[in-house]
Amino acid sequence: MPARQTSKPQISKPQTSKPRARRQTPEARPYHHGDLRRVLIDAALQLAAEGAEVSVREAARRAAVSPGAPFRHFPNRDALMAAVAEEAQRRFRAEIEAALAEAPSADPLARFRAFGIAYVRWAMRYPAHFEIISTGRYFAHGSSAELTRDNDELVALTERMLAEAAEQGLLRSTDLKRILIAGRALIYGFARMNLDGHFPRWGVAEAEVERLAEGVIDLFIAGIGKS
Amino acid sequence: MPARQTSKPQISKPQTSKPRARRQTPEARPYHHGDLRRVLIDAALQLAAEGAEVSVREAARRAAVSPGAPFRHFPNRDALMAAVAEEAQRRFRAEIEAALAEAPSADPLARFRAFGIAYVRWAMRYPAHFEIISTGRYFAHGSSAELTRDNDELVALTERMLAEAAEQGLLRSTDLKRILIAGRALIYGFARMNLDGHFPRWGVAEAEVERLAEGVIDLFIAGIGKS
DNA sequence: CTCGAAATGTAATCGATGATTACATAATGG
DNA sequence: CCATTATGTAATCATCGATTACATTTCGAG
User: Domain for residue B181, yes or no?
Assistant: First the structure.
């Protein structure tokens, strides 16, 4: 994958076509490139999805733009990564909520189960994106209000499910915080074990993972349930 | 932290003292530096502990050696990281086993508890080291036989504890694999949530973490236990 | 409509990094 | 004692994130 031509003359871009690019939304945007910011985020997102290192230069390259251009839209690499994380988190949350929309609203523990399964599935399907939103290793996590908000709402979601379960007398223990953290640790830990490549060492085959996730979550729910 | 002088004349090293450095072990080692390999690993380990980026050059700098020297001992950066991981894993395993040596050998679930707590504590105390040995993001995890072996033995350790618990009729379920993975996911997930900075978002204070870990593990054990 | 200010992109450059190479030197062992 | 070999140095490359000076396009006020 290395050995990328560095002396490529950059094509110099004839710039003849592209008539005008009238704006369509009330928010106005189109400048030179059209919407470099958006394109850069998508490029970075795809870069991550490909398992490649996400570099500002490579994103710029894919947007057919000079290496300095991205810095007009992001003060530094971390800011780009934060934007990428926001986008990923938005998609993540949307998928979780879609899964919950199909779950029986009456049974809080069934909803918890659906949440956990959707969580693990998304992490399996978009490992690089999950990595970005979950570790804060690529940028300062608190730097994005949107990210924090999205995350907090997901936390509140599971909190409500457990509170409801407690109200309905479904739980053995009343220490909701402990149950909440344990449940999340289980789900997060399972997703990460898969992501971090632990499962081969545990004799768990790729095809088995999803079913195992269900089993593990069921075990947990049975453990906290009454009787 | 940047702006490090690049034109530093490197001191040219008088090299007068250091009489001979007779070898002591049957394995022979002392060449020029003494034991650059060892020193580089320690430097990298400390670099990680300081939260800094681990770079080959910086490790070389700390060993007072030229930037190319490390490559005589490691074919590339990843190989250095693998050696660092081996060292970290060795220490990790030693601490886990020390903790288990103090646990009651008769009660397998108590041993499991002790294992989990020691695991989380080590991860809290040496976050960068834990990160290195647990993610495989810094090098190809399967590339080190020693690392694989150490890890497998830790897996086998918990496996045995659960098998014993099952023999003594302490468990509700007979699906040991499921319980094993769930337990590990819980412990690993908890450690990672702490490492990845999730807990502030969950309203968990730093000082609270260790006690919460115990609670969460107890909750799990109660969940899988009979009655 | 026009023209200047602001937004956006380019080109060149900097220091740092991982990696490779040619060369120097010190240790080992026949 | 000396040649082989292990070890380290110096120089060099390409890539990266970042900054700066400069060019060009867009927009809006008059």
Answer: yes
How many domains does one find in chain B? 2
Q: Give me the pLDDT at residue A136, please.
A: 76
Residue A53: what are its φ and ψ, rounded to 5°? -65, 135
When pLDDT is averaged across residues B31-39 and rounded to a whole number, the result is 82
CA distances from A48 to A108, A208, B28 (A): 35, 25, 45
pLDDT in tens, B68-99: 999 999 999 999 999 999 999 999 999 999 99
pLDDT of residue A143: 78
Whose C1' is closest to the CA of B10: which nucleotide? Answer: D9
Same-domain check for residues A41 and A118: no
**Residue found by looking up tokens 């106005």 in the block:** A28
Domain range for A48 is 36-72
pLDDT in tens, B42-71: 999 999 999 999 999 999 999 999 999 999
Separation of first and last alpha carbons in chain B: 58
Q: Test A141 with B189 for CB contact under 8 angstroms.
A: no
- For the CA of A4 and the C1' of D14, the distance in angstroms is 9
Contact B188 A189 (CB under 8 A): yes
Closest residue to C25 (CA, C1′): B32
For B45, phi then psi, to 5°, come to -60, -45
Q: B51 and B139 share a domain?
A: no
CA distance B106 to chain A (A): 24
- Contact list, A145 vs chain B (CB under 8 Å): none
